[in-house]
Specification:
The complex is a heterodimer of chains A (182) and B (192). Chain A has 182 residues and is of the alpha+beta class. Chain A has helices spanning 9-16, 22-30, 32-48, 57-64, 170-176, and strands spanning 72-75, 77-81, 93-99, 104-112, 115-121, 127-131, 134-135, 143-148, 156-160, 163-167. Chain A is elongated and about 95 Å long. Chain B starts with 6 loop residues before the first helix and ends in a 5-residue tail after the last helix. The chains are: A alpha+beta (182), B mainly alpha (192).
Chain lengths: 182, 192
């Protein structure tokens, strides 16, 4: 690059736009860096001038509708738990953090007299929760709770669009142990 | 509005589309809709034919998601597919304007159309890269380059009025912004 290259910066842009400038052309003819610079600007401007048109909104919507949502079912995976690793008995109080594929979710399990209480918070308002294929109500923050007679019955599911995430009963979750997030 | 995605994000998006994730598909359509729709317009097709090409191209993509090797290949694949379909429609309608085509042997016609599709694909991919690079620039450069080069021939007086920039500052600012754009494209392998 030559000393006077910088003074030609604007004029090389002019050349790339197709304006005539003898002095700039002479400089480009004697400077390989500036010649390459000009060539690259010409490529950019040619690409910028390519015909370009956004598709009509209705057409885009039609094409988006080509893919009909396919319901998918996956199983939640345990990320973290307050239960001691290797403990043989299920503790009376356990907190777990679950990987529900697109998000994580915290759930608490507590033995209360003759039943198990399960409390959780959905990742966002776009999620819903089901127990035995029936929707459970949630509060405005997405918190839900239910009680079942045995730990084996703590299975539930959370849903988001076409995704269904089955949360296995607590003893199955704990026996599988924590895993890495997806 | 164009959705800007890095290549890794696009790979993930394609992967999600393969799993029939309709949200991912919608994002993919948003990103490439202008690229695909511009191809039939480039071949001189009207809005109805352009709509047919657009739908056929995305239907083909839906069927071929497993065959798209990487995010890098997708823009070119879409443009080639749209170009082939555009030429097919043009042929059916007898709208081929080059009379020399009628004297060509079938294999020559096919070779010529393939070369045209390839050329269209390269041009479309470059146009997309430039537009995406401009969209990622700081506001001052983005707005200036958008008006000067992506909107067509806008006189400096109008540019000055719209951007509140003195006419005398437009030329040097444009040169600096083009330089930044060139640097960013260079970094992304645009000129390779």
């Amino acid at each position: 690059m030559k000393k006077d290259c910088f003074q030609f910066e604007t004029r090389i842009a002019d050349l790339a736009e197709g304006r005539h400038d003898e002095a700039a052309l002479a400089h480009v003819g004697s400077c390989s860096d500036c010649a390459e610079h000009l060539r690259q600007l010409q490529i950019i401007l040619a690409a910028a001038h390519e015909p370009w048109a956004a598709a009509p909104v209705e057409l885009v919507a039609t094409v988006k509708g080509l893919m009909t949502p396919q319901p998918r079912t996956v199983f939640a995976r345990l990320l973290r738990t307050s239960a001691l690793a290797g403990a043989r008995a299920i503790p009376d109080d356990v907190q777990v953090v679950l990987d529900v594929e697109e998000a994580s979710m915290r759930v608490m399990y507590a033995r209360m007299d003759a039943q198990w209480e399960v409390m959780g918070k959905l990742p966002s308002s776009a999620w819903t929760v089901e127990l035995n294929a029936r929707p459970l109500s949630t509060d405005e923050d997405g918190r839900f709770s239910f009680a079942v007679p045995a730990v084996e019955a703590t299975r539930f599911a959370v849903l988001h669009n076409d995704l269904r995430v089955e949360v296995p009963p607590l003893q199955e979750l704990l026996s599988s142990g924590p895993s890495n997030p997806r | 509005m164009q959705i800007l995605l890095k290549e890794d994000d696009l790979d993930r998006l394609i992967e999600r589309c393969r799993r029939s994730d309709s949200e991912a598909w919608a994002a993919l359509v948003d990103r490439f809709q202008a690229l695909v729709y511009s191809v039939p317009r480039r071949y001189g097709l009207g809005p109805d034919d352009a709509a047919d090409v657009f739908q056929t191209t995305f239907q083909s993509l839906l069927r071929s998601l497993d065959r798209i090797e990487s995010a890098k290949a997708l823009a070119k694949w879409l443009a080639v597919t749209a170009a082939r379909e555009s030429m097919r429609l043009r042929r059916i309608a007898g709208r081929t304007t080059n009379p020399e085509d009628y004297d060509m042997a079938l294999d020559e016609v096919v070779a010529s159309e393939e070369a045209s599709a390839e050329e269209t694909a390269v041009a479309s991919e470059e146009a997309l890269m430039v537009r995406e690079a401009v969209a990622k620039m700081p506001a001052k450069c983005r707005d200036l380059l958008q008006i000067l080069y992506l909107e067509g021939d806008v006189p400096y007086t109008e540019v000055s009025e719209r951007l509140g920039m003195p006419v005398g500052a437009i030329g040097p600012t444009r040169a600096r912004c083009l330089e930044k754009l060139r640097g960013s494209l260079l970094k992304n392998g645009f000129f390779e």
